[in-house]
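From the methods appendix. Each design record in this collection lists the discretized structure first, followed by the designed amino acid sequence. Records were kept in a plain field format so they could be parsed without special tools. The example shown here is representative of the layout used throughout.

RECORD:
C-ALPHA CELLS (381 positions):
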C-alpha cells in the first residue's frame, strides 16, 4: 500500500515530477534573482522565464507572446471572464457558461451578473456533455463570451470544444475554455480548438502549485488584470515566480512526452477499478459513462449512503479519494455538476471521485476495490 497510502485524487493535484523539481532547484538558491531586474542576475532569471513561456506556448500551439503567467487556474478563469468587457454594461452584455463549470468560472459569472450582465447557463446531457447546438441556440446579438471547460474536473467528461467554438465563430463570439484538467491526456492546440482564451494550471500537470497561465489570442479585446507595474507585458503586475515558471515549462514538456504512454496505461487501470467496484458493490452508478472521459477519472454514486462516510472508510484503509471538486469538498450540498446532469439526491449524496495517475499500480487497484466493497458493506449493514 505504501507508507503514505494509495493516492487516487490526482484531479485535485498531482505530485511534482522529480525532473520538474530538479529544474526548479537552481532558481530557488543559485539563481534567486528578480526577473524584472536589469542586472546580469535579473537577465538570467528573465531568460529562464521566457524559456518557460515558450514551453507553455508550445504545449498549446500558441505563440509565447500570447501566454501570460498567473497564480493558477482560478486566477486565469477570473481574468478571462471579468476582463472581457468590450461590450458596455448599459447594453446588457450576455455571457454563456456551461452548467458544470468550475466554481472559478461560475462565481466569476455571478459577479458579472451582479454588475449588470445577462448570464445564462447551458444545460448538459445526463452524461455531462455540452451539446454544441444548445450553445448555438442561446447565442444572441449581445453575447460577448462563451465559456465551456474542455474536461470536467468532477466526472471527467471531455467536451466538444472545437464544435462549440465553430458555432461561436460563425457569430463572432469569443470563446474561453478551462483546460486545467485536460492537458495531461488531451492534445491542446488553440487553433484546432478555435478558442480565444484558455486556462492552464501547473499543479494538474505534475508541476508546482501556485502558477498557471492564461492564453489570450493576439488581438482579443481583454483588459489589463492587475495594476502595479509592467510585468507580463503590462497586463498582469506582480513579481514572477521564477522557479514555478521554470517547473511549469518542464511539466508541459513532460506531459507531451509521456501522454501516449500514460493515457492508455491509466485508462486500463481505471477500467479495472470500475469493473471491480461495479461487480462488487450493489446500487452503484458510474457517472459520465457513455461520453468521452479522461482516462484517469472514475466517478461513482452509491445510492443510500453519504459520500463523506465512504471517504472516511477509505481513508481509514489508506485510500485517498474525494467527493468531487477539492475546492468544495467540505460542502454539505450535493454537487452542482451532478444536479445539472439530472442525478437524484439519493444517488448524488453518495458521490465518490477516484482519479488515477502515473504511479497508480495494479496492486493498488485491487486493494482499492476491496476497500470500497468493505466500506460500503459496513455502511449498509
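DESIGN:
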Amino acid at each position: 500500500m505504501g507508507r503514505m497510502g494509495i493516492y487516487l485524487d490526482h484531479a485535485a493535484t498531482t505530485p511534482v515530477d522529480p525532473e520538474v523539481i530538479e529544474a526548479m532547484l537552481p532558481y530557488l538558491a543559485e539563481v534567486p534573482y528578480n526577473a524584472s531586474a536589469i542586472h546580469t542576475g535579473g537577465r538570467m532569471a528573465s531568460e529562464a522565464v521566457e524559456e518557460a513561456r515558450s514551453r507553455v506556448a508550445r504545449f498549446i500551439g500558441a505563440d509565447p507572446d500570447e501566454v501570460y503567467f498567473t497564480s493558477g487556474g482560478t486566477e486565469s478563469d477570473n481574468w478571462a471572464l471579468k476582463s472581457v468587457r468590450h461590450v458596455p454594461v448599459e447594453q446588457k452584455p450576455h455571457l454563456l457558461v456551461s452548467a458544470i463549470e468550475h466554481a472559478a468560472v461560475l462565481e466569476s459569472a455571478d459577479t458579472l451578473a451582479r454588475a449588470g450582465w445577462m448570464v445564462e447557463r447551458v444545460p448538459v446531457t445526463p452524461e455531462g456533455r455540452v451539446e454544441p447546438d444548445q450553445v448555438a441556440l442561446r447565442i444572441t446579438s449581445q453575447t460577448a463570451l462563451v465559456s465551456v471547460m474542455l474536461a470536467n474536473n468532477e466526472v471527467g467528461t471531455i467536451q466538444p470544444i472545437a464544435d462549440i467554438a465553430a458555432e461561436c465563430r460563425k457569430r463572432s463570439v469569443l470563446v474561453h475554455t478551462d483546460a486545467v484538467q485536460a492537458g495531461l491526456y488531451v492534445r491542446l492546440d488553440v487553433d484546432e480548438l478555435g478558442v480565444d482564451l484558455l486556462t492552464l494550471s501547473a499543479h494538474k500537470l505534475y508541476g508546482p502549485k501556485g502558477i498557471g497561465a492564461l492564453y489570450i489570442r493576439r488581438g482579443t479585446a481583454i483588459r489589463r488584470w492587475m495594476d502595479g507595474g509592467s510585468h507580463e507585458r503590462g497586463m498582469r503586475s506582480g513579481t514572477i515566480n521564477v522557479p514555478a515558471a521554470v517547473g511549469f515549462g518542464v511539466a508541459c514538456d513532460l506531459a507531451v512526452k509521456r501522454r501516449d504512454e500514460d493515457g492508455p496505461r491509466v485508462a486500463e487501470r481505471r477500467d479495472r477499478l470500475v469493473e471491480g467496484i461495479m461487480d462488487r458493490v450493489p446500487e452503484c452508478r458510474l457517472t459520465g459513462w457513455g461520453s468521452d472521459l479522461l482516462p484517469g477519472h472514475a466517478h461513482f454514486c452509491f445510492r443510500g449512503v453519504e459520500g463523506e462516510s465512504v471517504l472516511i472508510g477509505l481513508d481509514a484503509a489508506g485510500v485517498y479519494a474525494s467527493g468531487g471538486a477539492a475546492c468544495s469538498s467540505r460542502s454539505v450540498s450535493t454537487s452542482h455538476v451532478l444536479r445539472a446532469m439530472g442525478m437524484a439526491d439519493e444517488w448524488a449524496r453518495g458521490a465518490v471521485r477516484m482519479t488515477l495517475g502515473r504511479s497508480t499500480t495494479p496492486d493498488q487497484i485491487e486493494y482499492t476495490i476491496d476497500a470500497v466493497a468493505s466500506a460500503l458493506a459496513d455502511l449498509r449493514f
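APPENDIX NOTE: The longest strand covers residues 297-302.
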